[in-house]
Specification:
alpha/beta; Rossmann fold; 3 domains; 11-stranded mixed sheet; 6-stranded antiparallel barrel; 21% strand
Length: 560
């Protein structure tokens, strides 16, 4: 194939990088005059293949004072892939280099037809998510299987279009795979309108059911036991009481042919746990100090009767595990392939534990189902649940998410990590993401972490991170054809994630003190503290009566 308008020649080859001595004159590509710029793609024809590269940097090593036309200009180019010549005809584009350019090879700008060959990917499953920065007529695609099989991350500071980018990617996947299964953890209730009828929304005040007996022992200890000097004693008592309560449940109902442990996900009643603790407390020879019994029973009574935790304590003694998992993971899909778990109304003191439970259930369900139902788990604000600072705690959550990051691909669980502060994320989270969509970032620590997290070529593109516009991203990794700067597709107004942002300039223009009284704010505040039902908390002494009294209300909540 004969090409025109060369831009230079190869003067250095070092691994996957070459140096090009530019002609210095402006070139013409498809009739449009242009100059080689950072991020532009070039081609190097060789007898056996056409090699593709990305301009990493351009420079004038010895500039003259007058800016003469004969100044030496060089370009550093990262090699990204090739099209091998098969029987004299070009084949298809593939990542990696098997035929390296040699000194003196001529370098050309990439034509639009060649760009189409690189980004078309006709033989694999793809979905388009936007357009390419250097040619807005060409679609930017994701390679669906490579994206999902090896985890991916969407990173960018607040206001850069991060949530919209997540929505566009998920919608692109659903457009091609209507029976996908996606679990989206939504900490700010942003995505409620983004997916319309395709989404099943679970709200702790009404539709989310995550019973305490689905929690493993470590998770339950995080919810119930304070981190004080009696923590170990209370944990010992709680473990023994749970085993006794499970045995009591089995005596009243079904028989099983397997050993029951403290982590076995099967129902038991909090009242049976309290009865066991009370019986132990009444013995002359107590195994643990008296305050340990008092603190544990007090906390159990308080939390089990608090309406804010009704999604955990709503149906004691009922084995609905299969129904809960089917609803959570959309089995069958029935036209709603995505589950949005609204975490904005989960009590803050158990939020991270709830995320840990959901992550663990996702992985273990996929493991025990034999990978028959692959699941994509989208973790918004991931830095909140898996912080880099070990002093912040959240160990059960970090362990659950890290386990998905390390083992999920073997069991059919894909992880999407979404964060506005990559430098605050646990290192192992980004290290396991083979595809990264990096939106605008100005923090040097965040930029450095993204550079360290990806081994992809085209690293020069990351220098654009502080200058990206809203909705633009640098896409790197195995889930995209090549490293690229791209613009995500625009969403209709009624499908955009809704983030509640106050307009100070509007609110401060006039006197608005009469719009809502302070007393109304106080009442709503107190109602939130009491729970969605608006009923006051029940005194700890009335735990049995309280559970019975709440039964009709909870039954109605589940029916709705």
């Amino acid at each position: 194939m004969t090409k025109e308008n060369p831009i230079g020649r190869v003067v250095s080859v070092s691994g996957a990088q070459i140096v090009c001595l530019l002609d210095g004159d402006k070139t013409s590509v498809d009739g449009v005059t242009c100059s080689l710029e950072v991020g532009a793609m070039v081609t190097i024809p060789t007898p056996r293949a056409t090699v593709f590269g990305l301009a990493r940097g351009v420079s004038i090593p010895i500039p003259s004072a007058q800016g003469a036309d004969d100044e030496m200009q060089i370009a550093e180019i990262d090699l990204v892939g090739e099209i091998l010549n098969q029987d004299g005809a070009p084949g298809y584009f593939q990542r990696g280099i098997s035929v390296f350019p040699t000194l003196g090879n001529i370098i050309y700008p990439t034509t639009q037809d060649e760009l189409r060959q690189v980004h078309a990917l006709p033989s694999i499953a793809t979905a388009h998510i936007g357009t390419l920065y250097h040619d807005r007529t060409l679609l930017a695609h994701i390679k669906t299987d490579d994206l999902l099989a090896k985890h991916f991350a969407v990173l960018g500071t607040t206001g850069t279009g991060k949530s919209c980018a997540v929505t566009v990617i998920l919608k692109a996947i659903l457009r091609e795979h209507e029976n996908a299964r996606i679990l989206l953890l939504d900490p700010h209730n942003e995505y409620s309108q983004a997916f319309g009828a395709q989404a099943q929304r679970l709200d702790p005040a009404s539709t989310l059911e995550l019973p305490y007996w689905l929690f493993n022992f470590d998770e339950l200890c995080e919810v119930i036991i304070a981190n004080d000097e009696l923590r170990n004693a209370q944990a010992t008592l709680l473990g023994e009481a749970i085993i006794a309560a499970k045995a009591e449940f089995l005596d009243k109902g079904q028989k099983v042919a397997y050993a029951i442990t403290v982590d076995t996900p099967m129902p038991y009643r909090i009242l049976d746990v309290l009865s066991h603790l009370q019986a132990e407390l009444g013995k002359l020879q107590r195994a643990e100090p008296l305050p340990a019994y008092q603190r544990l029973t007090g906390r159990l009574k308080t939390i089990s009767t608090d309406p804010r935790f009704s999604f955990m304590f709503g149906r004691p003694g009922h084995d609905r595990m299969a129904d809960i998992l089917a609803d959570l993971f959309r089995i069958p899909v029935r036209g709603k392939p995505i589950t949005i778990v609204d975490l904005s109304r989960v009590p803050s003191e158990v939020l991270n534990v709830v995320v840990a439970v959901l992550a663990r259930l996702t992985l273990e369900f996929s493991m025990w189902s034999g990978n028959a139902s692959p699941i994509l788990m989208v973790c918004e604000e991931a830095h909140r649940y898996a912080p880099r600072d070990v002093g912040l705690g959240f160990e059960p959550t970090k362990r659950a998410l890290a386990r998905i990051a390390k083992e999920g691909r073997k069991h059919g669980v894909s992880l999407c990590v979404v964060s506005q502060r990559p430098s605050d994320l646990a290192v192992e989270m980004l290290a396991e993401c083979n595809t990264i969509f990096a939106l605008r970032m100005s923090n040097p620590s965040d930029q450095d972490l993204v550079r360290a997290a990806t081994a992809d070529t085209g690293m020069g593109l990351l220098d654009f991170l502080p200058a990206l516009r809203t909705g633009e991203a640098i896409a790197l990794g195995e889930g995209v054809p090549i490293p690229q700067r791209m613009t995500f597709s625009k969403l209709p107004a009624n499908e955009m994630p809704h983030a509640k942002v106050s307009s100070f300039s509007t609110a401060w223009k006039g006197e608005n003190d009469q719009e809502e009284s302070v007393q109304a704010v106080v009442e709503r505040w107190r109602r939130r503290a009491r729970g969605a039902t608006g009923r006051p908390r029940v005194d700890a002494k009335g735990v049995a009566t309280a559970l019975q009294d709440r039964a009709p209300h909870l039954a109605g909540r589940q029916a709705s």
